[in-house]
Recover the amino acids of this structure.
């Protein structure tokens, strides 16, 4: 089987704990190189993953002609810069969410991808889970009727001081971080930009640590999203239609569990299987490169996602 050689820009927590292991597990991917300026991190990466090529500079990695795909887990404020540099070197790019800080940056990244004939995808790993696929299938089946209301929440208590998540100059804040998941989940169901929104947030040191918003759509549907860093863990969603509703606990996890579908016919539990969401994401992106096709999450959706985030930031 052909495999894609991956380079990773930075040795971020998500790269170390999730995506690098996923690249190694994937049948169609090979961990080829990691770039980090920290000698300590280079040594750890060498010992943990037997990474064959370690670079001290991001540009050195991008100059390596063997690398076909690049994963960008850098701080949000650096996504556009380094994704563009990678694409201009002819590399396909899997970029952590949010893909950019605003829709304008996203549009520039899409233009560069098209100009250079490379794939660009935003890394929403939860979209590859059995849970998400079954939620989408239930909605599309018409079992709950026309969607009238959605609520989606993702929050946790952030206990790591000085993390990039709370640094405004690096694109910190709960909306960009965990809030982008509810935004994407609602967008997956509604498939349109809302016509208006209202929001409330709590800010500390220049970033939102708690954020909630109501989105109103042209068809009369309303969505409620909520996120934060300053309270106990919460992750759940609900979709309410004219004929029933779906309750989705652990919305963005890959764990096994169940979805509750409630209609006039009664309540039924839909079991969901455990899903190795990061490996599925990496494998899909690599397969899209190998077979000259689009990956699961398209750029039209990614652009819409950023348009919604723009509206939400403006409403703060």
């Amino acid at each position: 089987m052909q495999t894609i050689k991956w380079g990773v820009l930075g040795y971020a927590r998500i790269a170390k704990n999730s995506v690098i292991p996923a690249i190694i597990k994937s049948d169609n991917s090979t961990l080829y190189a990691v770039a980090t300026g920290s000698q300590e991190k280079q040594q750890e990466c060498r010992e943990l993953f037997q990474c064959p090529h370690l670079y001290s500079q991001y540009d050195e990695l991008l100059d390596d002609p063997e690398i076909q795909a690049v994963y960008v887990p850098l701080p949000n404020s650096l996504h556009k810069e380094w994704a563009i540099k990678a694409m201009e070197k002819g590399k396909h790019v899997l970029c952590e969410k949010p893909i950019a800080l605003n829709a304008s940056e996203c549009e520039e990244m899409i233009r560069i991808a098209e100009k250079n004939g490379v794939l660009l995808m935003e890394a929403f790993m939860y979209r590859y889970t059995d849970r998400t696929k079954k939620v989408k299938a239930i909605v599309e089946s018409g079992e709950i009727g026309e969607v009238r209301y959605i609520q989606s929440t993702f929050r946790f208590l952030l206990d790591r001081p000085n993390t990039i998540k709370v640094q405004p100059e690096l694109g910190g804040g709960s909306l960009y971080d965990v809030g982008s998941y509810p935004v994407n989940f609602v967008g997956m169901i509604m498939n349109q930009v809302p016509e208006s929104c209202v929001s409330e947030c709590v800010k500390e040191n220049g970033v939102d640590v708690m954020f909630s918003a109501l989105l109103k759509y042209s068809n009369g549907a309303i969505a409620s999203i909520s996120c934060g860093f300053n309270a106990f863990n919460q992750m759940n969603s609900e979709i309410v239609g004219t004929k029933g509703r779906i309750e989705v606990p652990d919305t963005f996890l890959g764990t096994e569990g169940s979805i509750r579908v409630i209609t006039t016919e009664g309540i039924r539990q839909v079991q969901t299987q455990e899903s190795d969401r990061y490996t599925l994401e990496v494998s899909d992106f690599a397969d899209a490169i190998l077979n000259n096709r689009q990956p699961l999450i398209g750029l039209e959706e990614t652009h819409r996602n950023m348009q919604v985030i723009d509206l939400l930031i403006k409403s703060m």
User: Anything to note?
Assistant: Residues 299-315 form the longest helix (17 residues).
